[in-house]
């Protein structure tokens, strides 16, 4: 079968048939099918759960699940679950968390938890008429969505406000209904989108049913109704603080004054140069995404919001700030984090459920403080390494195992390589050469015996 031929009916095939069809595209189809099947869950019920989370599943894709202990946040100690594929992220978070736990830990505060959704519409009419009738329309929008908002209101959330936004300066006849929501402990995407789609229907009916509008004004083109992943008002701030002098006990820090001077410059560079800022912020999201994944949250939404927020001043910059004054070092991270601890994957994925239990079943606000602190911990560790011994020494040590596994070395070779590279520079080439030399020695010895 040509590989370019359009596949039809794939979704209707049984999982076995899907696996065989995909594996059949490889020369070693039996082996490929075996690998895919080996990652399926033994427990059929659990496998069904995973199959139903997504579509067209042919296997499961595992990521390592690690724990970063010793996160002292607002006086409470957490074991933080992290799901991530990059070696050294959990180690860096753990190292940083333990270090700051000896200095009072992280102080975190949730600034706000407001989420936004928009109905974007095109309307050719007299804005003054719409403005005059907007209070009536707003009442309607709130009253007619009660059947959706009732439960959320019982939990203390719901629609906070609805505004009419005139966007005609940007595009002809373009307006928005901009609604704000409190979704309590839920991430709330489905709740918000359901409200918005209902708003769109009510809005269209408003124009067509109210006699005050005439001619073209009776028509409204709803372009789309969707939540915004930009959540600058769902914001958390976390910080660590200590005397400059006391930083002498941080790994790789010989002269705390000079260290802080370099640290400040590094953060300043990430505030003025977007090339550096993107990498700096990526290091923050190493921690945040790992917690988001472990707790079943939508890390793409969180990333999108964080990076948009990093540009809210008109230039993309670091999400962290450093302050050094009166002999004190204070390092903080302010980041929007629309997280949930109920609903969605948080209650479906058994390991997400476990993560939340491990964290003591936190509210969404508490989880915001934990994820943000993980982000700051990872970033602190990265900057500390960058301005002292560099990032590669630690990274490549952690990466050594990945290289050895890629080279499919035996356990005894792995041990010898770990000992050999304990105090040597690690690179793919150096590890490869070392393994080859080991094997060569082995062959030479066998030839002689
Ligand atoms: C690597 O995943 C993250 C870092 O590049 C972050 C940074 O440079 O700040 C180390």
Explain this structure:
The structure is a single chain. The protein is an alpha+beta fold. It folds into four domains: 10-53, no CATH class; 65-72 and 80-109 and 235-342 and 361-389, 3-hydroxy-3-methylglutaryl-coenzyme A Reductase, Chain A, domain 2, CATH 3.90.770.10; 115-227, Hydroxymethylglutaryl-CoA reductase, class I/II, NAD/NADP-binding domain (Alpha-Beta Plaits, 2-Layer Sandwich); 395-448, no CATH class. The chain has 16 helices and ten strands. The chain has helices at residues 15-23, 29-38, 44-53, 89-101, 127-143, 146-154, 189-209, 256-272, 274-294, 299-310, 345-348, 350-358, 364-386, 392-406, 411-420, 428-448, and strands at 65-73, 76-83, 107-113, 115-122, 158-166, 174-182, 221-227, 234-243, 320-325, 328-336. The strands form three sheets. A four-stranded antiparallel sheet has the order 3-8-10-9. Helix 4 packs across helix 13, helix 8 (256-272) packs across helix 9 (274-294) and helix 9 packs antiparallel against helix 10 (299-310). The chain is globular, with a radius of gyration of 27 Å. The relative contact order is 0.11. The mean pLDDT is 96. Residues 86, 279-280, 282-283, 286, 382, 386, 391 line the site of (R)-mevalonate (MEV).
Q: Find the structural class using helix and strand composition.
A: alpha+beta
Major β-sheet profile: 4 strands, antiparallel
Number of domains: 4
Looking at the overall shape, the CATH architecture of the largest domain is Alpha-Beta Complex
Q: How many angstroms separate the termini?
A: 53 Å
Oligomer: single chain
The percentage of residues in β strands lies in 15-25%
Name of the CATH class of the largest domain: Alpha Beta
**Fraction of helical residues:** 40-55%
> Would you give the CATH topology of the largest domain?
3-hydroxy-3-methylglutaryl-coenzyme A Reductase, Chain A, domain 2
Overall geometry comes to globular
Low-confidence stretches: none
Q: Radius of gyration over alpha carbons?
A: 27 Å
Count every beta strand, where a strand is a DSSP E run of 2 or more residues: 10
- Cofactors and ligands: (R)-mevalonate
Number of helices: 16
Q: What's the mean pLDDT score? A: 96
Strand order of the largest sheet: 3-8-10-9
The name of the CATH superfamily of the largest domain reads: 3-hydroxy-3-methylglutaryl-coenzyme A Reductase, Chain A, domain 2
């Amino acid at each position: 079968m040509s590989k370019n031929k359009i596949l039809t009916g794939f979704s209707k095939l049984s999982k076995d048939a899907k696996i065989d069809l995909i594996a059949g595209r490889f020369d070693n189809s039996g082996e490929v099918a075996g690998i895919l099947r080996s990652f399926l869950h033994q427990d059929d019920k659990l496998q069904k759960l995973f199959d139903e989370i997504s579509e067209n599943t042919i296997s499961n894709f595992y990521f390592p699940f690690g724990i970063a202990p010793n996160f002292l946040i607002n006086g409470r100690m957490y074991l933080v679950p992290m799901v991530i594929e990059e070696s050294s992220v959990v180690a860096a978070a753990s190292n940083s968390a333990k270090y700051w736990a000896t200095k009072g830990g992280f102080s975190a505060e949730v600034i706000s938890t407001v989420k936004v959704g928009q109905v974007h519409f095109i309307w050719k009419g007299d804005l003054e008429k719409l403005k005059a009738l907007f209070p009536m329309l707003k009442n309607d929008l709130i009253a007619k969505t009660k059947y959706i908002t009732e439960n959320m209101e019982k939990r203390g959330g719901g629609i906070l406000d609805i505004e009419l936004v005139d966007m005609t300066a940007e595009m002809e006849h373009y307006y928005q209904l901009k609604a704000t929501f409190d979704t309590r402990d839920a991430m709330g995407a489905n709740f918000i989108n359901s409200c918005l789609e209902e708003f769109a229907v009510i809005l269209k009916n408003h124009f067509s049913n109210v006699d005050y509008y005439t001619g073209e004004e009776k028509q409204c083109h709803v372009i789309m109704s969707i939540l915004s992943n930009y959540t600058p008002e769902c914001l958390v701030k976390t910080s660590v603080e200590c005397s400059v002098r006391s930083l002498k006990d941080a790994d790789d820090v010989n002269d705390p004054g000079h260290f802080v001077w370099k640290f400040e410059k590094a953060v300043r560079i990430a505030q003025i140069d977007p090339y550096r800022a993107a990498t700096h912020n990526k290091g923050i999201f190493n921690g945040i995404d790992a917690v988001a994944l472990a707790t079943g949250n939508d890390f793409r939404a969180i990333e999108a919001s964080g990076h948009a927020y990093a540009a809210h001043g008109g230039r993309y910059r670091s999400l962290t700030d450093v302050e050094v004054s009166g002999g004190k070092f204070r390092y903080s991270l302010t980041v929007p984090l629309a997280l949930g601890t109920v609903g969605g994957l948080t209650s479906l994925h058994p390991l997400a459920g476990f993560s939340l239990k491990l964290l003591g079943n936190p509210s969404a606000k508490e989880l915001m403080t934990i994820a943000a602190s993980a982000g700051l911990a990872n970033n602190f560790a990265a900057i500390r390494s960058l301005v002292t011994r560099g990032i590669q020494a630690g990274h490549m040590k952690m990466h050594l195992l990945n290289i050895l596994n890629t080279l499919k070395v035996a356990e005894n070779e792995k041990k010898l390589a770990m000992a050999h590279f304990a105090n040597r520079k690690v690179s793919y080439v150096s590890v490869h050469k070392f393994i080859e030399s080991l094997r060569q020695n082995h062959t030479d010895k066998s030839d002689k015996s």
